[in-house]
Give the backbone structure.
Amino acid sequence: MADSFPLVLDDIRSTLSSASFGHRLHLHQELTSTNTEAMSLAQAGAVHGTVVIAESQSSGKGRRTRNWFSPPGVNVYCSIVVRGMKRVGPLSEWLSWVPLTSALAVSEAVQNTTGIPLALKWPNDLLFHERKVGGILCESAHMSAEDPVVVIGIGLNVNVPRTAFPEDLHQTATSLFDISGRLLDRNRLIAQLLTELEQEIEELSAHGPDRLRIAYTARCHTLGRHVRLLLGEDRELRGTAESISADGALQVRPFPVSPTAPPPPLLDIRAADVIHLRE
């Protein structure tokens, strides 16, 4: 899994045009998890926009305590400390939109850098033709209205060939290299995603999610699909994903219990594993 574009701090900074994100930049050859390191820095007082990047992770974090496949030298594993943001609207709405906004920003950065259009799977997976290319994991600590602290973790499959994925991911994952057929400069990609992520997090904080909701909806391939939702504790729900609510919930209409039954009301789903069903 050779990469002709190793990560270099000066190369990232050479195309970085953000105001805060990445101005404090920590690059490691290996970490257990960039999110864990970024949260430790945040708790020690790291400033807004501090970024942690690793060439590999020994225990990369996915959603719901899953491990994130993190081979060395080929992908993007980075985490950003977000704190002290003045907001319009309630803190709960802002927190619910940070993962969705982050996924939107990364998808736009990928398209602007590589030309590859990624779709979004609610809430924060990045897909190409239903194969997973990346994901977002947001974690918070010391939450207060005065100084909410959020760490945005980004995992993106860039230059790893599909044959290198573990067997259990062969049918569900892909990379930008496999899609484009060429090795990509991760330094430029990281600089672009930090710039776009900063712009959209600032928009969310200053103006709320109205425009972001429209942009997210346009990229979200979950909407209009029949879905199976795993809700935890062996509970699940099947229905049609119809829309995104003002606070970022997935609005699902359960399948009727019989062909003659009236349509059930929409349900707002705020946490679930989503499976797109074949129709």
Observations:
- The chain has a mean pLDDT of 92.
